[in-house]
Amino acid sequence: MRHALIFTLFAFPAAAAADERQALYGVWGTADQCAQTPIQPGGTVLANPFEISTRWLKHGSHWCSLKWGPLETRENGLFTGAHAQCGEDSVRGYFIGMSLSGEDLTLRWDFPLSNGPLSRCPAS
C-alpha cells in the first residue's frame, strides 16, 4: 500500500499539490460580479465572477484549461501561477499569477491586466 502511495505522488505530482490549492478554488469576484449585475445600467451584459477549480478557470462564457505551477507561501500569503489555454475554436495561451492575501485574491495576466482584489462570492 505504501509503495502505491509513493508511486501516485511521483506519477501524479499535480494531484499531490492540488489539495494545497484548495484555498484558491471557488467563485471569486467584486460585489457586482458576485451579484451578476449588469455592466451598464439597464444593460443586458452581466458582470461575471471567476470560477476556479482544479483544472479550469471560467469567466462568464469563457473557459480556460489550467496547468498549475508550484504553490509558494510568501510573506503576504500564497502565490501560484498557471498556464491557461483559453478558447474553443481559436485557443490562446496565457500565464496567470494568482496571489491570495488574507481573503483577497488577485489575478495577474501576462498582458497588462490585473483582476482584483477579488473576494469569495457567497454561496447561492
Short recap of the structure:
This protein has 124 residues and is α+β, with helices and mostly antiparallel strands. It has helices at 2-11, 13-18, 31-35; strands at 26-29, 50-52, 56-59, 62-68, 72-74, 77-86, 92-101, 104-109, 113-120. Strand 2 (50-52) and strand 3 (56-59) form a beta hairpin.
Name some characteristics of this structure.
124 residues, 17% helix, globular, alpha+beta, 9 strands, disordered N terminus, 3 helices, eight-stranded antiparallel β-barrel, single chain
**Beta-strand residue percentage:** 35-45%
The biggest beta sheet reads:
8 strands, antiparallel, barrel
Please give the count of helices. 3
Mean pLDDT: 87
Total strand count, please? Answer: 9
Low-confidence stretches: 1-14
Order of helices and strands: HHEHEEEEEEEE
Walk across the major sheet and give the strand order: 1-2-3-4-6-7-8-9
Given helix and strand content, the structural type is alpha+beta
Which term fits the overall shape?
A: globular
Kindly, what is the distance between the CA atoms of the first and last residues, rounded to a whole number of angstroms?
41 Å
Radius of gyration: 16 Å
- Portion in helices: 10-25%
